[in-house]
Amino acid sequence: MIRLLAGWQNGDGTMKETTFEERLGYMVYTEQFAGNLEGVREHLEYLRELGVNYLHLMPLLESPEGKSDGGYAVSDFWKVEPALGTMEDLGNLSDACHRKGICVCLDFVMNHTSDEHEWARRAKNGEKEFQDRYFFYDNWDIPNAMDTIPAFM
């Protein structure tokens, strides 16, 4: 992950100070754009020709089928969704981007996880340290209420 965060570099690995005005970003849903991470890597020259120098990868970490919250309910922050590739593929893509002067941003959240994540399992098993990090509900009514927009009149 550190390699991904060190993306503000020139193609030769030296640091370059930039401002957001100098960035032309491209948001990528890996599967829809190129099938997998290797496919994204194969499209980097096309992105450079468009002038892209900032690649924003939408959620691609492992999350449970059917309850992934759009990829944001991560079950393992150290694994890529298998259909998209591996952590090695992600590292290779990041390295290739940096060689072409493209910064990389990985879109994920740390304010919630899947209930299948190790921390959530440890909380459910009674470990106080992990219980303090979670709210668990018997059904989805309460958390789903957070997704609605209140009607103001």
UniProtKB/TrEMBL annotation:
Domain Glycosyl hydrolase family 13 catalytic stretches: 26-137
SUPFAM superfamilies on file: (Trans)glycosidases
GO process annotations (BP): carbohydrate metabolic process
Pfam families in the cross-refs: Alpha-amylase
The organism's place on the tree of life at top rank: Bacteria
UniProt-listed PANTHER family: ALPHA AMYLASE CATALYTIC REGION, ALPHA-AMYLASE FAMILY MEMBER
Protein name in UniProt: Glycosyl hydrolase family 13 catalytic domain-containing protein
Lineage, top ranks: Bacteria, Bacillati, Bacillota, Clostridia, Peptostreptococcales
